[in-house]
Amino acid sequence: MSGGSSAAMGIDGxxxxxxxHEIESADxxxxxxxxxxxxxxxxTDAVRAAARxxxxxxxxxxxxxxxxxxxxxxADADRDRDWPPKKRAIxxx
Length: 93
Prior knowledge:
The protein has helices at residues 11-18, 20-25, 29-41, 46-53, 64-75. With 93 residues, the chain is mainly alpha-helical. Helix 1 (11-18) crosses helix 3. It is elongated and about 75 Å long.
């Protein structure tokens, strides 16, 4: 599984804010805080988040260099010679 995560803020900070009262009132505040962090960490990994929100794909870190190289190779390909030349680089709105 990937080492990345997808969250608006770090899990530690979010737990500290959202569960402050619960943590403070626990018999073992640091233990309870760690339990909450552990509970939410597996919910924010990048692959799991991508599957739930419709992201087209997740590139594993070890595949990144090859994916970028292939994208650049495709970008360098000559345009089809049968197409007429463009009058403007970007169509006017």
